Hints:
The protein has helices spanning 2-25, 122-134; strands spanning 52-57, 62-69, 75-77, 79-81, 84-88, 93-101, 105-108, 115-116, 141-150, 153-162, 176-189, 192-207, 217-220, 227-229, 233-239. By secondary structure, it is of the alpha+beta class. It has two domains: 27-109 and 222-239, Immunoglobulins (Immunoglobulin-like, Sandwich), CATH 2.60.40.10; 115-214, Nuclear Transport Factor 2, Chain: A. The strands form three sheets. Strands 2, 3, 6, 7, 13 and 14 form a six-stranded mixed β-sheet that branches. A five-stranded antiparallel β-sheet has the order 8-9-10-11-12. A four-stranded mixed β-sheet has the order 4-5-1-15, with no helix packed on it. It is globular and about 45 Å long.
Amino acid sequence: MNRILVALVLLTVTASLCRAEIDNRKGFDYDKRFVNTAGRIYTAADPAVSGGIEGAISRGEITFAIAVDRDRKHVYRGEIKGSHFSFRGIPVQKYDLVLITNDNKAYEGFSLGDGAFTSLSSTLQTNLLLRIKKADEFFNRSTAHRIGVDGDRAYAFVERLRDRDTLTQGGQLMDVEIRRLEISQFDQATDNWQMTEARHIYREPEKGRGKHRPFLHSIHVPELGNIRVVDSVKQLGTVAVPVTER
């Protein structure tokens, strides 16, 4: 049994080393932190894939960059430097981007349906907002940045914050507050709604508890959505983002 275990360990190490050698030969900066395992959000880039996205925004310093595929099954984390962002090793697909900046803004390009939230009856509006709030009460504060409607279905770009005390599994108090972003899907049921899907696209602890941080200032930028990637790096150039004050 011991010999079998040793052999398995050696095979695992050898495979990891071979993968690293392949990555280095291709000159690909493959960040193995961004893996798609249980309890994690971000999908690992594939160094064997040549697709990608590059660009910059006209103002602001980016602190986090996310690319979400059109099916909302995979979320890729980008490399950032100042106002520039870069995604590598992402497969053929259409993508929507979210760029978070150091001045508490979130520029996003999601398509959430052609219908407007305000086209719903007041009862449906109220019940939808209530469903969003109650969907996950681990986070004690939430806001729907943008809601779109497609027939009897609604899509919401939602931010959640937990600024209550949070404990580790060992019972120790964590010195953090937690922020999460998600795209949620709701189906209409008479005058109410049922959440049928929620894709978490960002969940990060922010150092320092008790600060009661504000929500991000979300700004829809259509140029950051519906980006088709094939077998090369899509160059977006500099995307103009609006001047906003809050």
